[in-house]
Amino acid sequence: MEQAQLPIQLYTAEQVRTGEQKAAAMLGLDMYRLMERAGAAVFEHLVQAYPASTTVLVCCGGGNNGGDGYVVARLALEAGYKVILWGLGDSANLTGDAAIARQAWLDAGGQITPPASELPPSAGVVVDALLGTGLNGPVRENAADLIRLLNRSSLPILSVDIPSGLCADTGQVLGAAIRAQATVTFIGCKQGLLTGKAANYVGELLFAGLDVESAFHSVCQPAVGRVTEDDVAQCLGIRDRTAHKGDHGRILCVGGDHGMGGAIRLAAEAAARSGAGLTAVLTQPDNVLSIVSAIPEIMAKGWQEKAHEVSQKLAWANVVVLGPGLGQSDWSKALFFYIAATDKNLVLDADGLNLLALSPDYKNNRIITPHPGEAARLLNCSVADVEADRFAAVRALQQKYGGVVVLKGAGSLIDNGTDCWLCAAGNPGMATGGMGDVLSGVIGALVAQGLSLTDAARVGVLIHSMAADRCAMDGERGMLASDLFPHIRQLVNPKLRT
């Protein structure tokens, strides 16, 4: 059975559980047939990915995830592999389809042994079928001990549906979790596999629809959408041949207190490189020369705490990016006070968010782009609380502050209060100064060009992450925020399908 391309739609574990039953009933399939298909999909990947491994260690738990593991073990045994199966707990207590799969394994000549304190020396690959998507509390100690033993080994681990110990809805590690080299997930892709700490555990994520995905999608509405390159192409069409600079927006980038002029320069250049018609900067006077010397296309002006200068610039702009390098000095707070109340479209980032946290308000004309630390300040909670359930955090931010929220990090989330999207692109090389400033400039430029706040946030996050992925082809370490600019320019000019 071939693994399909990763779906655009993402689901909670409960949605998949109920949806797969409805889909199977619609197609006249019993659930054990789906279990056999799931095991076959995992076995197919095992054969393809680990051709040199002739001995397989399969670790099975007590639920349907363990049942999938018994199917994998039986198929491997029948194909001539040496299979060692460790059963966690008393396998005689299995019920339903998992019990049928266990009996089929025994009937094929397989044996079940309890986990040992050391891995079998002959094992070449591990199949993790210990704990499935139903896990919603801390991993029990016997399972945690086995997970830690497997993780300490140098053997590749292939997880069935989800790495054991990972929450399918949030990506949170529930005490201990398998660090898989690859995970084959089934029928509906679980939202927790693609955000937060999940990236450290899932490995390569593969999808197998088990030939019921069409029926499943017809009976189950996704919880989250995944942003794709098709979204970029749909939102950024070919420009009119008679277009002029006034057609593509006027963006004002505000920030850059003493010693932080580089942040606002990055945001402004990102805006210009993303297609804004005109880009201006309001900053500390001592930043102006360096900005215009490096990028003469940007109109930079020093602000000396005169209200009318802010009013003039706001009247000129149709979108404002506020926050990169803004700081929290008296100069910063005054500038924030004048601009944050604007009815113009606003992208708020960095110290703009920290100042917003001090005086929270609800507005629908802005996009806020916090990383987990800024999100924690905005929600008056801990970073751990944010990362424990990023989907709940991004929705809480939107409900408290309005507009569109981008919660940055691995698997960035975008929420407008009605719908939520996830960006699966990006890499650890982005963990460097200035990346957020570039993102705010990209998003602001897309708003300036006429995209809705929602589309600008969704498409901007993807363009930014894809640009970083292209940079990472030369290595993740040492990537600079400014390295993204050539790739951003390419990505904002998508090849439209005919």
Automatic annotation (TrEMBL):
<feature type="binding site">
    <location>
        <position position="325"/>
    </location>
    <ligand>
        <name>(6S)-NADPHX</name>
    </ligand>
</feature>
<feature type="binding site">
    <location>
        <position position="263"/>
    </location>
    <ligand>
        <name>(6S)-NADPHX</name>
    </ligand>
</feature>
<dbReference type="InterPro" id="IPR029056">
    <property type="entry name" value="Ribokinase-like"/>
</dbReference>
<feature type="domain" description="YjeF N-terminal">
    <location>
        <begin position="16"/>
        <end position="218"/>
    </location>
</feature>
<comment type="function">
    <text>Catalyzes the epimerization of the S- and R-forms of NAD(P)HX, a damaged form of NAD(P)H that is a result of enzymatic or heat-dependent hydration. This is a prerequisite for the S-specific NAD(P)H-hydrate dehydratase to allow the repair of both epimers of NAD(P)HX.</text>
</comment>
<dbReference type="InterPro" id="IPR036652">
    <property type="entry name" value="YjeF_N_dom_sf"/>
</dbReference>
<feature type="binding site">
    <location>
        <position position="128"/>
    </location>
    <ligand>
        <name>K(+)</name>
    </ligand>
</feature>
<keyword id="KW-0547">Nucleotide-binding</keyword>
<comment type="similarity">
    <text>Belongs to the NnrE/AIBP family.</text>
</comment>
<feature type="binding site">
    <location>
        <position position="436"/>
    </location>
    <ligand>
        <name>AMP</name>
    </ligand>
</feature>
<keyword id="KW-0413">Isomerase</keyword>
<keyword id="KW-0479">Metal-binding</keyword>
<feature type="binding site">
    <location>
        <position position="437"/>
    </location>
    <ligand>
        <name>(6S)-NADPHX</name>
    </ligand>
</feature>
<comment type="function">
    <text>Catalyzes the dehydration of the S-form of NAD(P)HX at the expense of ADP, which is converted to AMP. Together with NAD(P)HX epimerase, which catalyzes the epimerization of the S- and R-forms, the enzyme allows the repair of both epimers of NAD(P)HX, a damaged form of NAD(P)H that is a result of enzymatic or heat-dependent hydration.</text>
</comment>
<dbReference type="GO" id="GO:0005524">
    <property type="term" value="F:ATP binding"/>
</dbReference>
<dbReference type="GO" id="GO:0110051">
    <property type="term" value="P:metabolite repair"/>
</dbReference>
<dbReference type="InterPro" id="IPR001763">
    <property type="entry name" value="Rhodanese-like_dom"/>
</dbReference>
<keyword id="KW-0520">NAD</keyword>
<keyword id="KW-0067">ATP-binding</keyword>
<dbReference type="GO" id="GO:0046872">
    <property type="term" value="F:metal ion binding"/>
</dbReference>
<keyword id="KW-0521">NADP</keyword>
<feature type="binding site">
    <location>
        <position position="371"/>
    </location>
    <ligand>
        <name>(6S)-NADPHX</name>
    </ligand>
</feature>
<dbReference type="GO" id="GO:0052855">
    <property type="term" value="F:ADP-dependent NAD(P)H-hydrate dehydratase activity"/>
</dbReference>
<feature type="binding site">
    <location>
        <position position="161"/>
    </location>
    <ligand>
        <name>(6S)-NADPHX</name>
    </ligand>
</feature>
<dbReference type="GO" id="GO:0046496">
    <property type="term" value="P:nicotinamide nucleotide metabolic process"/>
</dbReference>
<comment type="similarity">
    <text>In the N-terminal section; belongs to the NnrE/AIBP family.</text>
</comment>
<feature type="domain" description="Rhodanese">
    <location>
        <begin position="40"/>
        <end position="114"/>
    </location>
</feature>
<protein>
    <recommendedName>
        <fullName>Bifunctional NAD(P)H-hydrate repair enzyme</fullName>
        <ecNumber>4.2.1.136</ecNumber>
        <ecNumber>5.1.99.6</ecNumber>
    </recommendedName>
</protein>
<dbReference type="InterPro" id="IPR030677">
    <property type="entry name" value="Nnr"/>
</dbReference>
<dbReference type="GO" id="GO:0052856">
    <property type="term" value="F:NAD(P)HX epimerase activity"/>
</dbReference>
<keyword id="KW-0511">Multifunctional enzyme</keyword>
<dbReference type="InterPro" id="IPR000631">
    <property type="entry name" value="CARKD"/>
</dbReference>
<feature type="domain" description="YjeF C-terminal">
    <location>
        <begin position="228"/>
        <end position="495"/>
    </location>
</feature>
<keyword id="KW-0630">Potassium</keyword>
<keyword id="KW-0456">Lyase</keyword>
<feature type="binding site">
    <location>
        <begin position="132"/>
        <end position="138"/>
    </location>
    <ligand>
        <name>(6S)-NADPHX</name>
    </ligand>
</feature>
<dbReference type="Pfam" id="PF03853">
    <property type="entry name" value="YjeF_N"/>
</dbReference>
<dbReference type="InterPro" id="IPR004443">
    <property type="entry name" value="YjeF_N_dom"/>
</dbReference>
<feature type="binding site">
    <location>
        <begin position="64"/>
        <end position="68"/>
    </location>
    <ligand>
        <name>(6S)-NADPHX</name>
    </ligand>
</feature>
<feature type="binding site">
    <location>
        <position position="65"/>
    </location>
    <ligand>
        <name>K(+)</name>
    </ligand>
</feature>
<feature type="binding site">
    <location>
        <begin position="408"/>
        <end position="412"/>
    </location>
    <ligand>
        <name>AMP</name>
    </ligand>
</feature>
<feature type="binding site">
    <location>
        <position position="164"/>
    </location>
    <ligand>
        <name>K(+)</name>
    </ligand>
</feature>
